[in-house]
Amino acid sequence: MRTGDDHQINSETEQHLIELRGVTKVYGEGYASMQALRGIDLLIDEGEFVAIMGPSGSGKSTCMNILGCLDTPTAGTYTFKDVEVNQLTRNQCALLRRHYQGFVFQGYNLLNRTSALENVELPLIYRGAPAHERRERALKALETVGLKGWESHTPGELSGGQQQRVAIARAIITGPAVLLADEPTGNLDTARRREIMELLASLNHNHGITIIIITHERDMAAYASRVVHFLDGLVESDERDRKVK
Amino acid sequence: MLWNMILMSLREIKRNVMRSFLTILGIVIGVGAVITMVTIGGGATAQVSEQIASMGSNLLMVTPGKRLGPGQSSDTVLFKVSDGEAILRDISSIAAVAPVSSKSLQAVYGNENWSTQVTGSDNQYFRVTNRSIRTGRQFSDSELRGGAAVCVVGETVRKKLFGGQESFWGNIRLEKLSCQVIGILEAKGQNTMGMDQDDIVVIPLRTYQRRISGNQDVALFQVSVQQGASTDKAQQDIHRLMRERRHLSPSDDDNFNVMDMKEIAKMLTGTTQLLTALLSAVAAVSLLVGGIGIMNIMLVSVTERTREIGIRLAIGALEREVLMQFLVEAVVLSSFGGLVGIALATAASFGLARLMQVPYLFNLTINVLSFLFSAAIGVIFGYFPARRAARLDPIDALRHE
């Protein structure tokens, strides 16, 4: 395996927030097996705003799942904040997600029939925060995403854009090191997409949250400071230091 | 955390009121039935003991055989009249001894006939069993000695045979024996076992032996101890005397019994208690079925909420926390069922107690026990679905529609 060697060679001075080294992922076994990732190397530093692009089946979502500790690589290493994630148990992964990562999904994934405020409070419940603190921080997070006054509405009473804002508020309430968004604008119209991307950009800019998003569209990726292209389970191109729009 | 989980589960239950209600119905019925059975059984037992105790703590019963009731061996040595006389003569603390032999017979008068308990005894019988003669008279000495065909009847027998006539001094027929009514007893009502104490015809013992049983035996003695004297002491004295009279060597077992009312009460309530225990066991089975109902619904709930579980896992819920959430939900459901069951049982046993005329005795132990048991059912039957939820793969769970 080349992974080990690569890791040895790469003892650079700077510590990266996220370090993928020779990551592969194979689904299934034997003839039916499918290689989703064929050896990815990806370094992401704190404060970056990374857009991952690529056609369907290029391995973007698999990579995202691995970054979010929801899935484990077949081979290669994933290091998050100096912790080798491969070695973690299921529960340790959950704790890592709880303390350092925020998730935003294409389908919002809010709890139905539960108010926006309570949806946003949810991660803090698992952190064991007292009720008044949860409420305070949830109100603040909702204000940050521009939903002041909508706290008591349930997802059914909110538009898609608003639901995604609630989901973003839920993701940032814990003050995560990284926010992972899997096609956050996929279900929205153009105007709402812009709003969501601007919100993410401002979170990256003003709150210093590292953001990694998956998107299909160039104009959405244009908000990011770095665009990584995936093709057939490999990194095809990596454009860094772009101007933030 | 636990508090939050309880709140969450309460909300989940509130969202599916109808389903939750149907889910806990099994537990409600189970807990309700168990508590009702035990409460009513306890009331009946208490009533029996109390009534027997009220018959007089100074009553003793001397019976042949190893114990009273069915199962006496046929080679039991029966008593003779002289045994009773010896008890009265030799033991100073004895107030009265009544020899008792009885048999169920048809009493016939004119066109009326009525099956009743015919008892052969003497005048001491009225004293010992606390009966008094309402109208008429007791047996005279000559009647007792001569085995005259006379009888004293209870109120029920009077009503059945003579109808409206308050007193009647003619002849009635008991099997082949025609005897003259000389007295009517004061009504006494039902006894502890629900038996009518007025359904009785008393005839002189000698008459009974000659004309009905055809032997010289006495089935048992009812003994009343003098007021103020120790019943325990009298019991021991009779015991010693009877062993002597029956020539039992120290190594022989007793072939008779001297029981006080407490022992009789214990024996009679034993049946009630056994019945209560059996019925409660049947009711407990419905608790088990209720538990399976809970498991079923929790499994449905886990499938329905797969996506929610995925969300929770994705935002950092531990396996253990998801497990706890569903477990808490199951326990809250089943405990709620337990509480409703307790409420139902309280109402039911209160009503039943009045209907059956037994005292309502609140049984704290069984209430607490049933509640804990229903909560335990939540834990046991909630565990499997909860574990299933906790073990879900977050990616699959999030994709679940």
| Helix/strand class of chain B | alpha+beta
Number of strands of chain B: 12
CATH homologous superfamily assignment of chain A: P-loop containing nucleotide triphosphate hydrolases
Number of helices of chain A: 8
Give unreliable regions of chain B as ranges. none
Largest pleated sheet of chain A: 6 strands, mixed
Strand content of chain B: 15-25%
What does the largest sheet of chain B look like?
A: 6 strands, mixed, barrel
How far is the N terminus from the C terminus of chain B? Answer: 28 Å
- Report helical residue fraction of chain B: 55-70%
Q: Which features characterize this protein?
A:
heterodimer; A: 245 residues; alpha/beta; Rossmann fold; four-stranded antiparallel β-sheet; 8 helices; globular; disordered N terminus; B: 401 residues; two-stranded antiparallel ribbon; 57% helix; elongated
Walk me through the structure.
Chain A has 245 residues and is an alpha/beta fold. Chain A is built from eight helices and ten strands. Chain A has a single domain, classed as P-loop containing nucleotide triphosphate hydrolases (Rossmann fold), CATH 3.40.50.300. In chain A, the strands form two sheets. In chain A, strands 6-7-8-3-9-10 form a six-stranded mixed beta sheet, with helices on both faces. In chain A, strands 2-1-4-5 form a four-stranded antiparallel beta sheet, with helices on both faces. In chain A, a hairpin with a 6-residue loop joins strand 1 and strand 2. In chain A, helix 4 runs parallel beside helix 6, helix 5 crosses helix 6 and helix 6 packs parallel to helix 7. Chain A is globular, with a radius of gyration of 18 Å. Chain B is 57% helix and 18% strand. In chain B, a hairpin with a 2-residue loop joins strand 7 and strand 8. In chain B, helix 2 runs antiparallel to helix 12 and helix 9 packs antiparallel against helix 11. Chain B is elongated. The two termini of chain B are 28 Å apart.
